Amino acid sequence: KASFADSKVLVVGTDVSFMPFEFSQNGKTQGFDIDLWTKVASDLGLQFKWQPMDFSGIIPALQTKNIDLAISGITITPARAQVIDFSEPYYASGLTAVVAENDKAITSPAGLAGKKIGVKTGTATVDWVKTNVKDAQMVSFPNIDDALLALQAGRVDAVIHDTPNVIYYANTAGKGLVRVLTPPMESGEYYGMAFPQGSPLIPQINAELSKLSANGFYKATYIKWFGIAP
Ligand code: GLN
Question: Which domain holds residue 141?
Fold first, then answer.
């Protein structure tokens, strides 16, 4: 049977500001998602090009089929699953808060009630904070880097974003600038590759993800980016 791959170059949406999943360093786009998708596409013989975009544009672009799929640390949520389709989960995540390194007042997640909290527009964190942080005053940024700068400038009291991103930032660019609050605010979120509803790509991509788990590629790539085994 004719495969999707024969007919076109797939357009793959991603928001290249989510270290260590997709980010730019020394002019190169890299990260866990980038490695994972590149391997999937190469094994399946799929041609593709990256379409960088703001995170908040990804789900609408899938709904209108302006992109063929997206990989961008996208949390599988029931609301999203009403309007787009997901692959099987490929990464277990959660949410974590950071404060400025010199902040002596907020020492645990409980201290965030009533505070000004920076979040990234269109992410699952927005709804989560509404439901779970009492009297939070949310400030939205299109890009988490801007939220983290606002934190260092004292314009927000805390930033809440995906745990692996926050930890990676705190250990690299944000070292000595931000402090991670423990424990994480939330765990048990999962990332999936995202597709327009009914995309014919999904079954073959799920099969390929199982194969990459079985043959060690997934584990090696995970260790490369997170420094620990999954
Ligand atoms: N996991 C977050 C969400 O799906 C987004 C993470 C990101 O900024 N790419 O809402």
Answer: 93-188
What sign does the CA torsion over 43, 45, 50, 56 have? negative
* Pair 31, 22: CB distance under 8 Å: yes
Hey, is 165 helix, strand or coil? helix
**pLDDT digit string (tens) for 95-144?**
999 999 999 999 999 999 999 999 999 999 999 999 999 999 999 999 99
In this predicted model, what pLDDT tens digit does every residue of 51-82 receive, in sequence order? 999 999 999 999 999 999 999 999 999 999 99
Distance separating alpha carbons of residues 133 and 230, to the nearest angstrom: 29
| Strands 10-14 vs 69-70: parallel, antiparallel or unpaired | parallel
**CATH number where 116 lies:** 3.40.190.10
Q: Is the CB of 186 under 6 A from ligand 1?
A: no
The number of folded domains in the chain is 2
Contact 88, 192 (CB under 8 A): yes
C-alpha 203 to ligand 1 mean position (Å): 23
Contacts of 34 (CB under 8 A, 6+ apart): 14, 21, 22
Ligand 1 centre distance from Cα of residue 3 (Å): 30
> Residues 77-95: pLDDT tens digits?
999 999 999 999 999 999 9
Tell me which DSSP letter residue 22 carries.
Answer: B
**72: Cβ contacts below 8 Å, ≥ 6 apart:** 13, 14, 15, 18, 21, 22, 33, 55, 58, 194
Instruction: Kindly give the number of the ligand 1 atom that is closest to the alpha carbon of 21.
Output: 9
Q: What is the ipTM of this complex?
A: 0.98
